[in-house]
Amino acid sequence: MILISDLLTLSPTATDDGVKQPLTFTWSILDGPYGVNSGVLFLPTQHSQTVEVQFYEPGVYELQFSAFDGFISVSDSILVTVGFENLAPSIFVELVLPTLDMDHDGFQCASNVFFTILDDGFPSPANTDGMIESAQIVPPDAPFAWTIPPYIEEIIEVGSSAGERDFRAITNSYVSALEPGSLNYVSYDLVITANDGTGLVSETVSIVCGATNP
After folding, report:
1. pTM flag (> 0.85)
2. Quick one: pLDDT band at residue 183, thresholds 50, 70, 90?
3. Backbone angles phi, psi at 80, to 5 degrees
4. Which among 61, 83, 92, 156 would be 20 to 30 A from 27, CA to CA?
5. What pLDDT sits at residue 211?
6. Is residue 213's pLDDT more than 70?
7. Are 94 and 103 spatial neighbours (Cβ–Cβ below 8 Å)?
8. Which string of b and e fits 105-144 if b means at least 16 CB within 10 Å?
9. What angle do CA 99, 102, 106 make, to 5 degrees?
10. Is the pLDDT of residue 85 over 80?
């Protein structure tokens, strides 16, 4: 496979007995994304033996090389796969909605994070994942009865269009204390990742909620 931004050099070999006249050559398109009308440029001309080929659309092309001695024409063909130059996906966080639910034992710290992944779909559509990092409860010496550390409940795809996919990540945690009122806040980072098969990118979202935010 070659990239659409590349020039492809083709140098076929042709021999003849020279009885009739010097060989003449012709390059042509047998098939492509738009059939024989697919846009291809042969440089310097389509009648050169060695050419550089410029493609204008991704896809699979069949190119034919013909040699003619004034009496008999022979030909051969080659298949060429042309693809886009890969662009790494991008992550854009649109909205972060932390929620706090207090009760007499402690509180629940959850969030909805809305984000968008932009990607060219090459070599494959980007998939997304996430992880929790830097989780802490302040003050750290509070007498806890039990806790549910911050975790990702799910990441849901909520919409898509050409080159763009929209997601909602839901996180949750619960902190309970032996002494009511002894907790201040809980904080953690949600690390969102996107991978298109050749590269991994990430974006970090800090989430803080509690009785009194720091």
Report:
1. no
2. low
3. -130, 130
4. 83
5. 57
6. no
7. no
8. ebbbbbbebebbbebeebeeebebebebeeeebeeeebeb
9. 115
10. no
Highest mean pLDDT among 9-23, 68-82, 166-180, 198-212: 68-82
The number of CA neighbours under 13 Å toward the Cβ of 182 is: 13
**Which of 42-51, 54-63, 83-92 is the least confident region?**
83-92
**Beta carbons within 8 Å of 19's beta carbon, 6+ residues apart:** 69
Q: Which residue has the tokens 């991704």?
A: 58
Q: SS3 string of the chain? A: CEECCCEEEECCCCCCCCCCCCCEEEEEEEECCCHHHCCEEEECCCCCCCEEEEECCCEEEEEEEEEECCCCEEEEEEEEEEECCCCCCEEEEEEEEEEEEECCCEEEEEEEEEEEEECCCCCCCCEEEEEEEEEEEECCCCCEEEEEEEEEEEEEEEEEECCEEEEEEEEEEEEEECCCCCCCEEEEEEEEEEECCCCEEEEEEEEEEECCCC
Tokens 């402690």 label which residue?
106
Structural domains present in the chain? 2-83 (2.60.40.10), 90-210 (2.60.40)
